Amino acid sequence: MLEQKGIETIDTLGKGYTNDLNSILQNIDEFTFVVSGDLPFLDEKLSEL
Fold first, then answer.
1. Rounded distance, CA 19 to CA 41, Å?
2. Distance in angstroms (rounded) separating the CA atoms of residues 22 and 15
3. Which of 9, 17, 48, 7 is closest to 31 using CA atoms?
4. DSSP string for 1-49
5. Is 32 left (phi over 0), alpha (psi -120 to 50) or beta?
6. pTM to 2 decimals?
7. pLDDT of the chain along its 49 residues, tens only?
8. CB 31 within 8 A of CB 21
9. Could you state, in order of their start, the residue ranges of all structural domains in the chain?
């Protein structure tokens, strides 16, 4: 469903959040901003810093 909307997804081994995130970050060559999803005061202004 996400791919149909033009959103790229990455398949992982499913060994848990930390292991999967580590695997992804080791295998991509672009700048990546990772943040917990439960930060209510995070907005686009902060992400531009």
1. 27
2. 11
3. 48
4. -TGGGT--------S-HHHHHHHHHHT--S------TT-TT--HHHHT-
5. beta
6. 0.57
7. 788 888 888 889 999 999 999 999 998 888 887 877 777 777 777 666 6
8. no
9. 1-25
- The Cα-based distances of 4 to 7, 10, 11, 25, 33 in angstroms read 7, 14, 16, 24, 24
The residue whose two tokens read 């531009």 is 48
What the block records as the tokens of 11 is 């398949």
